[in-house]
């Protein structure tokens, strides 16, 4: 897999010389490709750039003048001779800040975001190149609207509008990633995605169940990965890149290569990334409560507690990861296309850092606590047919098979037996999506979906001295979870200024689970449910003048109980254990939001949203009993019994606000602010703060972006969560929170100052920066591991 720089440069020169009639259209300021540019001459109309801004203009070579048109950009007229002098690279300038952009996440088809009543945030490739996120979780944080929690360095659990984990949905190339063991606690599955191979990221805020089904309550995160390119003429089209990155806070070493080979009808794309993270160093200026003063080492078959000589070093937290992607695109005609994708990701073992902070009788509770390799594999086939009929204009079939593997390994201090728990999920899915335009006023989308999850869970108790494994209790029952659904939406143009969008979905879901009562005296051996959910949405978009829109949206969403909700056994917090509860029902969300976006003049853009979500039959952790007992012996400790239950209700309300102001063409100022508050209410009327409603957070950034340079200074801010505002489930976690003057847990406020800069010249892109310049010691709310201290980052990318 090695390619020398000289060989890469020669390949670049060869490719540059070979495709004289293929041009690339880019933004003059950001130098990012512009797709869907309409190109025409006096006698032929029209050609259009592909998603990488590329088009073959051989058919226009005899034209006197060639026009380039795109919404939001100045129209250009160039002669073929002028284009040749530009080295077949056309740079377009914007007329004003765009009010919206093309997105696919809202209805699985490409639409203009300003025509959708739902708020959508797109993370632009130029910003990703500048920020250089280490993981896909860090990539989501670039939006300024997604809050990220981390229990360990190998983690990243998004929070959106007061919801998280299994109330948010991940979509990768249109395929649902959520499985039947996505838990209510923090999850790190998003790190299986390789930020180097992600082409575009969109975040839908608010319910998305009409299109995506169960779990899409707080929002949908849609990732599109790199695709093979097809040549627009008979020549071979080659694109690719080599990249590497290093950061000081964890001695990160990242290496990446991707290459795309495209002919007229078939193309191939390969992406490989490997990254190694050392133990993470936190900042020096902040609460001493975050310092871990000890380490545990295994010496001569004994656990030895030693002093942590570097109090800011968080050990064990290092790990490494490998990502491989292979795609094939075959387009036998303009109407038919086949796309196959293979994804594989695996990590090394990595420490569950927050568990290494727990104490018992004045000593560390654990000698070992780590996750085994987190593996994800997906095979995905998409078939697209574009041929107008009475039933559809375009149709897509998506078939996918995913395999997930994860494991947990824990051993109490000075104990010889390690508890090993292994989980595997085989997830198969099929989606059939249609779109049909009926005259100029109706665009209908509809589709069918099937999802099947097989969960296999194994428990072992391993004696590390004798090296003998014996059966142990499993984390989950062995189970099958299934979902069948049909949906339809209609976008209705009522006038030039008013659009109406409505949709409805029926979802049938079922589960069958078998429990092993060998280790726990459950009063049941089987559990099942068979139920359905009807969800809907209705929204309007009102255009006010040329550059402003108002939106309003009401919608419902649901989440079916999954295997994690119904069947899990685990220690949720010190002195408590969660046990299965087979008597669960689906939870339903009812949401309303108002949004606005406006471009004032050519340089100032503001946008915002006000939202409220009511969650009925909310699935939350509450005290419980087992065979009439409120406590059981678990892991040698008498622990309070808890279970996931349908509480009375929960509600969340909040505000999102953002702005951008351009001083001339290159200087800009921008920022985001997010406030949300959530409350869980029990059946007896008792209220408590919702666990996943993040504190107020935001950013403020100032930058310069022109041609080869992109420089940005930015600050991040996070408000405090006072002790009285802490959720009950978090109050007892003294190992991860700071203590106030009364000795109660709370999450302090924090802010950071950061600097990033990048320079691109032809095929060379260099990016460098300093994160957390003030070396603040802080933890994002609910995080078990402190954020990096002062961190110097540098990366180099060679592209063709």
UniProtKB/TrEMBL annotation:
Keywords, alphabetical: Cell outer membrane, Membrane, Receptor, Signal, TonB box, Transmembrane, Transmembrane beta strand, Transport
Region forming the signal peptide: 1-20
A UniProt-annotated Pfam family: TonB_dep_Rec_b-barrel
UniProt subcellular location: Cell outer membrane
Any GO BP: siderophore transmembrane transport
Domain of life: Bacteria
Residue ranges of domain TonB-dependent receptor plug in the record: 114-220
SUPFAM superfamilies in alphabetical order: Porins (SSF56935)
Domain TonB-dependent receptor-like beta-barrel: 338-773
GO cellular component terms, A-Z: cell outer membrane
InterPro entries, sorted: Beta-barrel_TonB, Beta-barrel_TonB_sf, Plug_dom, Plug_dom_sf, TonB-dep_rcpt-like
Membrane topology term: Multi-pass membrane protein
Single GO MF descriptor: siderophore uptake transmembrane transporter activity
Protein family membership: Belongs to the TonB-dependent receptor family.
UniProt name for this protein: Vitamin B12 transporter BtuB
Classification lineage: Bacteria, Pseudomonadati, Bacteroidota, Flavobacteriia, Flavobacteriales
Gene: btuB_7
């Amino acid at each position: 897999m090695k390619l020398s720089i000289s060989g890469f440069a020669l390949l670049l020169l060869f490719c540059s010389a070979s495709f004289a009639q293929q041009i690339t259209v880019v933004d003059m300021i950001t130098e990012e490709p512009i797709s869907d540019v309409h190109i025409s001459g006096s006698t032929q109309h029209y050609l259009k750039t592909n998603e990488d801004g590329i088009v073959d203009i051989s058919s226009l070579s005899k034209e006197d003048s060639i026009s380039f048109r795109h919404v939001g950009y100045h129209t250009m007229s160039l002669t073929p001779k002028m284009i040749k002098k530009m080295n077949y690279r056309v740079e377009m300038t914007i007329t004003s800040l765009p009010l919206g952009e093309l997105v696919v996440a809202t209805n699985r088809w490409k639409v203009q975001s300003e025509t959708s009543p739902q708020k959508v945030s797109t993370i632009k490739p130029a910003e990703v190149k500048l920020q250089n996120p280490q993981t896909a979780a860090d990539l989501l944080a670039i939006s300024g609207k997604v809050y990220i929690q981390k229990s360990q360095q190998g983690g990243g659990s998004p929070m959106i509008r007061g919801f998280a984990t299994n109330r948010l949905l991940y979509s990768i190339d249109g395929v649902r990633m959520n499985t039947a063991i996505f838990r209510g606690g923090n999850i790190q599955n998003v790190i299986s995605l390789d930020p180097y191979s992600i082409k575009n990221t969109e975040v839908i805020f608010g319910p998305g169940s009409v299109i995506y089904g169960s779990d899409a309550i707080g929002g949908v995160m849609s990732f599109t990965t790199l695709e093979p390119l097809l040549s627009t003429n008979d020549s071979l089209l080659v694109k690719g890149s080599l990249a590497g990155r290093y950061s000081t806070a964890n001695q990160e070493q990242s290496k990446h290569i991707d290459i795309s080979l495209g002919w007229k009808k078939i193309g191939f794309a390969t992406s490989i990334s490997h990254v190694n993270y050392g133990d993470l160093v936190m900042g020096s200026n902040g609460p001493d409560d975050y310092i871990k003063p000890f380490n545990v080492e295994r010496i001569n078959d004994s656990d030895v507690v030693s002093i942590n000589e570097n109090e800011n070093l968080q050990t064990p937290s290092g790990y490494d990861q490998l990502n491989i992607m292979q795609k094939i695109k075959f387009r036998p005609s303009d109407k038919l296309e086949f796309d196959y994708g293979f994804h594989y990701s695996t990590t090394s073992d990595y420490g569950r850092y927050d568990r290494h902070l727990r104490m018992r009788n004045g000593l560390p509770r654990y000698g070992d606590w780590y996750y085994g390799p987190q593996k994800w594999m997906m095979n995905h086939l998409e078939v697209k047919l574009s041929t107008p009929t009475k039933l559809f204009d375009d149709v897509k079939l998506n078939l996918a098979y995913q395999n997930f593997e994860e494991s947990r390994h824990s051993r109490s201090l000075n104990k010889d037996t390690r508890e090993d728990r292994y989980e595997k999920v085989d997830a198969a899915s099929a989606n059939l999506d249609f779109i049909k335009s009926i005259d100029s006023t109706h665009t209908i989308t509809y589709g069918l979906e099937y999802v099947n999850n097989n969960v296999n869970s194994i428990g072992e108790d391993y004696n590390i001295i004798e090296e003998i494994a014996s059966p142990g209790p499993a984390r989950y029952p062995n189970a099958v979870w299934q979902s069948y659904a049909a949906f339809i939406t209609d976008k209705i143009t009522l006038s030039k200024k008013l659009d109406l969008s409505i949709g409805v979905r029926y979802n049938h879901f079922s589960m069958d689970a078998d429990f092993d009562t060998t280790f726990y005296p459950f009063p049941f051996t089987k559990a099942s449910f068979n139920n359905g959910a009807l969800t809907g949405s209705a929204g309007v978009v009102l255009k006010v003048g040329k550059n402003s829109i108002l939106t309003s949206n009401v919608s419902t969403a649901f989440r079916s109980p999954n295997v994690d909700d119904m069947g899990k056994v685990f220690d949720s917090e010190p002195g408590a254990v969660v046990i299965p509860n087979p008597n669960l029902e689906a939870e339903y969300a009812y949401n309303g939001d108002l949004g606005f976006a406006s471009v004032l003049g050519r340089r100032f853009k503001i946008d915002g949203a006000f939202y409220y979500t009511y969650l009925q039959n909310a699935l939350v952790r509450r005290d419980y009993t087992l065979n009439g007992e409120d406590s059981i012996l678990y892991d040698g400790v008498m622990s309070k019994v808890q279970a996931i239950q349908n509480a009375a209700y929960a509600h969340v309300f909040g505000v999102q606000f953002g702005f951008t102001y351009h001083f001339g063409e290159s200087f800009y100022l921008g920022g985001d602010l997010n406030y949300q508050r959530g409350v869980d209410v029990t059946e007896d009327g008792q209220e408590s703060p919702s666990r996943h409603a993040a504190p107020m957070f935001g950013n403020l950034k100032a930058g310069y972006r022109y041609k080869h340079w992109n420089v940005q200074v930015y600050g991040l801010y996070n408000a405090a969560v006072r002790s009285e505002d802490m959720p009950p489930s978090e109050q007892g976690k003294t190992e991860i929170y700071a203590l106030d003057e009364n000795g109660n847990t709370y999450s302090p406020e924090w802010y950071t100052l950061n600097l990033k800069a990048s320079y691109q010249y032809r095929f060379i892109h260099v990016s460098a920066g300093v994160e957390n310049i003030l070396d603040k010691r802080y933890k994002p709310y609910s995080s078990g591991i402190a954020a990096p201290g002062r961190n110097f980052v540098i990366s180099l990318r060679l592209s063709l």
